[in-house]
Structures
1.
Amino acid sequence: MSGYARIDSVDSLRMFRGVLVKFAEVAQVSLADAEGEMQRVLMWLETEASTYWSGQIRKRHENVEKCKDAVRQKKLFKSPTGSTQSAVEEEKQLRIAQKRLEEAEEKLKNVKRYTPRLQKEISIYKGGVQRLSTTVSADIPVAISRLDRMTAALEAYAALSMSGGGADDSGQLFAQMAKAMGEDVDAGPDYRPMRQKTANVDRKAATPGDVRLVTWADGGLPEQERELFSKIATDRKIPKPEDLVIVEQGAWENSKIYMERVNFEDGDSGWFLGKAEDGPSMGNISMSIADLLQSRTDLTEILTLGPGFLLTIDATGVTAVLDEKGKEVWAGIIKT
C-alpha cells in the first residue's frame, strides 16, 4: 500500500457513510426539483403564456374597434341643440384600449423571445450539473460500497487482533483491506485451481437441475456493481436464453463462488459457476441461462462477458474479474 491511515473509530466511518448517503439523497432530490421547475416554466411559456396573450390580443383588438366606433358615432351625430358633440371621453377610452393592445402585443413578443433563450439556459445548466449528477448517481454508490468493504475489513482485523490470529490470517486480511481500498498488493490470489476445476468439468455429463427456488449464500450483487460491468472493455458475447450453463452442486450454499466462461458451441453458453474454495466436488448440474437468471437476475451483465473471463463473488460483492488474458481488471474499474 502507498501509506498508512490511522483509524481511531470504525463508527466514524459508519457516520461518514450515513452523511454521504444523506447528501446523495438530498442532491438527487434537489436536481430533480430543479429539473422539474425548469420544465414547468418552459411548458408554461410554450403553451399557457402564449395562448393567454394571443387571446388577449384578439379581445383587446376588438375593444379598440369598439372604442373607435364610439368616437366616430359621437362625432357623426349632432346634439339636440344642433352642435357637434364632444368625444373627449370616448377618445380617452380609445387611447386606453390602444395602450392595452400594445401591452398584450409586447407581452406576446417577450414570450416568443424568451422561450428559446430559456431553452438555451436550460441546456447550459444541464451541462454544468452533469458532473454532479454523475457523481451522485454513480460515483457515490461506488464509494459507499468501498466504505462498506473497508469497514468490514477493519472490523475483521480488530477481531483478529483481539483473538490473536496467526500470520497467515493477517496476510490474507491485509490483502482484503487493500482490495477494499482499491490498492494493489504484491501477492494476489491464485486462480489456477479455479481454472483447473473448470477445465476438468465434463459438461455433457452434467445432470439437469433447477436452482430457481434456492437461496444463494453469497447474497447477490448490489445494483451499483452491476452497472460497473459496462465499463469493462471487451467484445460482448450474449448467450441465448436456452443455452446451457453448468453449476457445481451446492455452489449456492457457499458464501464465495466463482464464474468462468470457456469456449462455447451451439446450445452451450460456456459458463461454469462453482465454489471458490477448495474441496471435493459433489457433481455438476446443467440448466438454461433463462432458468439461472430467474434465481440470479444480478448475473445478467456478467453473462455477456466473453470466453476466458473469470470472476469471484462473495458476500461483499465482486472481489475480482480476470479478463481473457488473465489480467485482473476489477480494481481498475472501481477506481474509475
Note: The mean pLDDT is 85.
2.
Amino acid sequence: MSAIPEEGQISVSQQTVAAVTTRKKPLAMTERMQSFLLLLPSFIVIAIFVYFFIGTTLYISLSNWRTLKRDLTLREPVYQTYVDMFTMPRFQADLRNTVVFTILFMTLAIVLGLSLAILLDRKVLAGTVFRNVFLFPYALSFVVTGVAWRWIFNPETGINLFFEILGINALLTQLGMEPLKPGWITNPEVVLQVNDALARVWPAAANLQVKLGIPLALIPVAIAATWQLSGFVMAMYLGGMATISNHIREAARIDGASEWQIYRRVIIPILKPVTVSVAVILLHVSLKIFDLVFTMSGVGPGFATDVPAIFVFEMMFKATRYNLGSAASIVMLVLVGLVIVPYLASNLREETS
C-alpha cells in the first residue's frame, strides 16, 4: 500500500508549486513585453507609412484639391470626384484595358509556363541551360522589357521588317493583295465588341462612352508581359512537380494511363495550390502594371493601352488633379485588395484548421 502524505507535506508541496507559478508569471509577462517592444517600431512605421497615407489619400480623393493650390475642403456631395472619374471615357477605357490585359496576360503566362515546366519535367528540354534561359527574362525590369518590345513591335523598324526580308509582302503584292504592315501598338481598333449584348443584360451599359472589346494595341503588351513572367510561372510549377512522388506516376502507369493522362488527370490537379498562388501573383501584377505599359506604348491611340496606374501618374504630376489621382489610387487599392485579402484569409483558415 502506498504511503499517505501527511498534511504538512501537502502544504509544503502546494507552497512550492505556488512559488514556481509566481516566478513564471513575471517571466511570461517580461517576454511578452519584450516581444511587444521589438515589434513596436514596425507597428509605428506601418501605421504611418501605410495606413496613415491610405487614409490621407482617401481624404484627398473626397476634397476639392484640383489645382496646385491646396484645398482640403470636402466636395459636395462628398463622392463627386468618384462620379466624375467613372464617367470619364478615359477611366472607363482604363478599366476595360485592365480586364482585357489581365485575362490575356494570365492565360498566356500560365499556359506557357506550365507547358515549359512539363517539357522540362519530361526531359524534352534537358539541362539547366534551358531553365536559365526561360527564367532569365524574370530578372529584367519591366522598363527594359518595355523598351525592347517597343522596338520589336514598332511598325516601321520592328517585326514588320521580316515581312519584307522574307519576301512575303512582295508575294502578296504580286497576287494583288495588300502587303502586311500591322500597326501593333499603334492600332486603335477594338475587336469583339460587346456593348450591345451587355446593354441588353445591363441597361446602364448603354451609357458607356468606350467600346467594350479587345484593343488590338493591348495584345503586344500582354505578349511582352507574358515573355517576362512565364519563366517565373515555369519555376513555380517545376518546384511543385519536384514534390510529387514517383510512386504516384508509376501507379498511374500501371493503371494504363498515358503520359498525357498522367499530367492531365494526376499531376495538374495535384498542382492546384501552385496554380492558385501563381494566379494571385499574376493578378496582382496585372492590376498595378505601370512601367511596362508606360515605356512600351504609353496611353496608346484612343487610350487603347492606358491603365489606371498611368492615369494616376498623369493626374497627379501632369494635370495636378490631385483629388482625381487619389480617387484612382483608391480604386486600384480596392481592386488589389479584392484579390489579396481572400487569398490571405484562405491561407489563414488552412493554417489554423
Note: DSSP finds 15 helices and two strands in the chain.
3.
Amino acid sequence: MPIKILHTADLHIGDRRYGRFDPERSINTRLDDQRESLLYLVRIAVEEEVDAVIIAGDIYHGRSPNAAEEDVFAEFISGLAETGAHIFVVEGNHERPVVPGKPSPLTHLATLRIDRFHHIDGPAVVNVATKNGELAVAGMPWPLRRELVDGGYIAKNVSPTPEIWDAFIGERIDELIENIPTGAKSVFTGHLWTSNVMGINAKQTRGEPVCLPQTLARKPFDYIALGHIHRHQQVWDDPPAIYSGSIERTDFTEANIAKGAVVAELGDETSWRFIQTPARKFVDVEMNLSGMSDPIDAAVTKLANKELDGAIVRLTVTQMKGDRSFDARHIRPKFPEVFYMRVSRIDMSEERKIAGLHKYSPLEALGEFIDQSEKLRPHKEELIERAKAIAEEIRG
C-alpha cells in the first residue's frame, strides 16, 4: 500500500480581515471560518486514512496568537492525533521568531510531547514508521536573513540576491538529503518562494528567500510539500512540487481562487489530488451609478442577481458630480444574508470626494482615498490591514 499524506499550509488562524467582533465570545467571526475549514481537513484525514499530515507553515496570522486562536489550532491537532497519523509542522514567516532565542507560538505544543507530533523549527529530517512503510520528512522552515549573515553568505548591510538565497537553500537541501535513509519514502517540506510561482514578480520577492524549483525538487524526494503561496499550484513535475494553497480566502485577490489541501500517495509512483475546503465566498462588484435618481435602489436592483448568501462582498460604486449621494449605511441593512460588506465610492468630483468623507469611518475613508490612486489600489488590502494593526496598537 502507498503511504498517504495530507498536505496543507497557510492556515492563517487569527486573520481578522472582513470579520466582525462577537462580544458574547470575544472573538472575531472569521475565526469560525478558519475552524470550520480545519475540522473539514480532520474529516478528510479520517476518510482518507492518511499516514501523515504535513503543515507547511503560517499556522497563525500573527506571531502572538490569542488564547482563542491557539485553542482552534489545538483542536485541529487533537483531531488529527486521534487518527493515528504523524503530524509534521514547519514554521512559516508568520511564526518563526526573528529574535534569536525567542520562543515560537508553536513551542508549547512541542513541549507537550504529543504522540506523533513533530515540530520542525530548523532544517531537519524526521524518520517515522507508518503502517504502510518508512517515511522520511525533510523540513525547512522560513529562512531568516540573519542565517545568511551568520553563515558568511552576506555582510550585515547587504541585501541578499535570489542567487545567494538559492545557494543557501541548496546547501541545506544537500545536508538534508544525506540523512534520508535508503529505501524510505521521502518528502521535502518547506515554507519558501520558488522562482516560477504563478503571479509573483521580482519586486515581491526582493530580499526574500527564493530558489529555483529544481533546487528543491530532486531525488530521493518523492513529493515536495510547499507553503507560503496562497494559490494552489504545481511548480515542478518530477518529483511533483506542490503549493497546497491556503485553506481560506484572505483578500479579494483570491476571490476566484479555489482553496483547499492536497492528498498525495507515495507508491511505486507518486500521485496527488486537490481537495477543496468550504472556504468563505468573496464577491467583488463594481457598478457605475452616475445619473441615477435613487442610487441605493439602483444598487439593490443590480445586486439582486448576485449570489451573496454568506459572502464577503466588496461593492465599488462610481458616481459623478451632482449625483445623489450614495450612503453605505443605507445599503448594508438591505442584505442581511451577507456575511460582511465593504462599500467604496469613487466620486469623479474632488469636491464631492472631500465633502463625503465625514460619512465614513477612518478606515473607510482610507479605503476611498486608496481607490483614487492607480499606484496604491493594487496594495489596498495590505494597506488597510496595516492601518487596522496600527489602530489596534494605539487602542492597546
Note: Residues 350-358 have pLDDT under 50 and may be disordered.
4.
Amino acid sequence: MKIILTTILLFLSTFSFSKTIEVDTFLVRKEKDIALALDNLRNSKSKSELELNNITLISELKEIFNNPHLFDYNFTLLSTMSTITPEDKSFRLFNWNIEDEHQNHTHYCYLVKKGRGGKNKVYTFKEDKITLPPQPKGYLTPNRWYGALYYKIVTKKVGNKTFYTIFGYNGNNRSSNKKILDVFWFKGRTLRIGYPLFQDERDLEKLNYRVFFEYSDKATISLKYLADIDKIVFDHLTPEAPKLKGMYEYYVPDMTYDAYFWEDGFWHYQADIIVGNPKEISRRVYSIDPETGEETYKIVSVDWVNPVNPNSGDQKDIQVETENNQTKKSKKKKRKAKKKKNKRIRKKNKKGQPRSAIGNDGYHKLN
C-alpha cells in the first residue's frame, strides 16, 4: 500500500512540476516573441510599417493576458514597454508609445486585472485627442483617456476603497512634455481614472482629480515617490519670464521642490520642501505686485509655529515658552482640529461628483 501511495505522490509531484515548467516556458517564449515585435515596432521605416508592427505587437500581447502567472513574472526583455504592477499584484499594465515623424506621441495601454476561475479581466485604453482637453478634469474611463506612459504606482487605502496613485509621462509634442499624477480605482469590475485626492496649490480647500506638470521640451523635471518619508516630491515649475505665464512650453524648474504627503485620506500639498524637516509644512501665498502688476508669491508656514520667540534674548524664557506650546493637551487638540478640517475638505470635494451609469461597453459613463 505504501509503495502504491508513494508512486501516486511521486506521479502527482512530477505532474505539478512539469506543469510549472510548462507555464514558465510559455511566458519565457512569449516574452521573446513580444520583445521581437517591440523591436520591429521601434525600427519601423514608414507609417504603414509602424501601424502593421503595432498590430502584431498587440496580437502577441493578447496571447498572455489570461496566464495566471502574469502578475509575478518579470518581463525584463521589454525595455521600451512599461509592465508595472502595484504591491498587491492585483493588476498589471502593458503600456507603450509610438512617435511619428512630427514628434507627436500616440499611447497604448492594457490593464490586466487578476480574475477568478483562471480568466483575467482586460481593460483596453483608448487615447482621445479630439474631445478631451489638454488637461482633463473629473472622472475618466479607459475609453476616454489622455494618453501616458506609466512608471510608478503607490497604493493607499481609505476605508474599504483602495486607490492606486499612478505616475505618468507624456511626450506631448516638439514644444513641451507632461508628467502626470493620477488615480486608478475599481468599483466592482469597473475601472475608474481620477479621484479628488490632490490638494490644490492655491486653494487648500480644493482637491483635484489629477495633476498635470507641463514643461519645456528642453527641460528635465523630477516626479518621484520617496518611500522613507512617504512623500511625492517634484520640481516647482515657473515660466522663463512673467509674460510667458500659461505658455507651458516655456516652463522650467526653478531649483525648488514641492511635495505631496499623505494624511487623513488625501495627498496634502507642501511648498518648498526641506526633506530633513518633516515638521515644517508650507505653502505659497500669491499676490499681485501693485507697481508691476505681476504675480508674486511668498512661502508661509501652515499648521506649525516655531516656539522660539525671536524677540526674547533669554534662553530660559524660550525654553518655558517651548514647553508650554508643546504640551500633550495642545498637541492632541491641534491634531483633532486638523483631522476635522481634513475630513471636511474630503466631504466638501466629494459633493457634486457626477452620477454614473453602466453603459453597454461595461464602463461608467458620466452624466
Note: Residues 2-42 form the longest helix (41 residues).
